[in-house]
Design brief:
The chain has 424 residues and is of the alpha+beta class. Helices cover 45% and strands 20% of the residues. It is built from 15 helices and 13 strands.
Amino acid sequence: MKKASLVIKEIQEGTYNDVLKEVYIDESRIEKQPQRYVAAIEKFISLYGDQEIEIYSTPGRSEVSGNHTDHQNGEVLAAAINLDIIAVVSKNDVVKVLSDDYDLKPISLDDLSKKEDEVGTSEGLMRGVLARFKELGYAIGGFNAYMTSDVLQGSGLSSSAAFEVMIGTILSGLYNEMKVDPVVIGQVGQYSENVYFGKPCGLMDQSACSVGSLIHIDFKDNSKPVVEKVDVEFSSFKHSLCIVDVHASHADLTDDYAAVPYEMKKVAQFFGKEFLREVDEKDFYNQLVAVRKEVGDRAILRAIHLFNENKRVEKAVSSLKNNDFDTFKQVIKDSGDSSYKYLQNVYSNKYPDNQAVSLALALSEGILENHGVCRVHGGGFAGTIQAFVEDEYVDHYKEEIEKYFGEGSCHVLKVRKFGGMKVL
């Protein structure tokens, strides 16, 4: 640990430039980081004084393949991105956090039981992570922190998972010599969100934020998911990940999201199973006529998406391992097409006049031609699309797509190697 004022001096002298290049990759983002870090440290000093500090970073994540598979114990491929939360921290007796000027209530280590008035709050997430760390036998302690985030909220980049992972990463660094397995930190975040925050989420988001790089997760045994880091140098493929915000509201779409797992489970229940992953695909097709009478056509189509999407995830992983990026892009395109045609999560049937995601995909395909691929991003129905675009073509794509969705709507990202980490 070093005094906060000394760290500011070292950042301004360029001491950490190489570290920042490794973390943020893209030159346009690297340039802004020193002033961002200095501003965060200055804010920390104004709150807590010129103490000895450490600085941590956790990235957001993007779902690459495996659209709506995790809730059926399926397979996913996700990537950590070079948008992150940074936290300036020092040790303390309680957990005291200010996050982008949102002052969170202090968490006392004397009582880590779930509080009903903290359900759905950041305080609940923090308390849950602390409690689970303690239950698992890890050392815990308090800290002062100032956090600031550029992970876009409401974009499907998992700002909440990044926050949970940040709390776990700080505890790993301050009190456990940075030795807590990143997968465990992800599982702790999931536990906190499920139990203390009250949201039934899977493990994909937290794992991607914690482990970093590209990860392949198989949820076949949901109590013990297999998390594999796909160890490739993504930058060598000379493509960037673009997320386009189509400015479509998620309001009144709860029923649309809920219908996807509900209908898939209806198919599973026909075969006496809880999750569609447990159903034999041959049995499904052999009994398709009877299943169709029972569950209806859309549920059938969504089941077909699930069966094929799990295979596409495996194909995407193997193509990356073999440095076959052309095949990888084809898989992404096929996945997006399946989401549109079979999963049907690109627009809501309740609002046929509102098809911003569909429009963004149509326009993107015309702009990209042979220079990239695009697909719906995350849960769908509204929000964002994802595109993998050749580095040399990114500026053109960004300029053209922003003509339709506004300046700043296209965010050019890189896949970063590191998950939750201590930066300095």
